[in-house]
Every structure is written in C-alpha cells, then in structure tokens.
Design brief:
There is one protein chain. The chain is 25% helix and 36% strand. By secondary structure, it is of the alpha+beta class. It has a 3-stranded antiparallel beta sheet with strand order 1-3-2, with helices on one face. A hairpin with an 8-residue loop joins strand 2 (33-42) and strand 3 (51-60). It starts with 7 loop residues before the first strand and ends with a helix.
Length: 75
Amino acid sequence: MAENDTNLLSTHYFDSAAEAAEAVRAADLLGLGVALANRLVPDTDSDDGSFVEEWVVDVFASVPEAETDDEAEVA
C-alpha cells in the first residue's frame, strides 16, 4: 500500500475536466488534499472500440506529499 493510501478518503470519476476542476475547488475549500489524473477508458456507449477521457480525483484527509525526483526515477 502506498503511503498516501492511508490518507485517502474517496475517489471520484468525472467525464469532463470542468467537473473534475469543480471537485478540486470544493476539496480545496474544505482544506482537503487532492490528486488529479486523467486516463483513456473504453467507450461503453460505442461498438467501434473507441475510447473516452475520464478524470479521476482522489480526495485525501490532508495534502499528499509530492514525490521527490529520486522517488520518481525508481517508479
């Protein structure tokens, strides 16, 4: 388990960057930490094998610590 996982409160998935940004702003107002990422996932509404962008917002009880350059090279 990653160090920040014990601090994780919830994970939310959004279809648009605007919705994800709103969630980030709300967490900031509450003094919570966030991690924001996007990824491509299969489009379940299409039969042509296309992908859609999905935004993932992890909400933490406190601000997660940033990775150092040394830690990033190991991963």
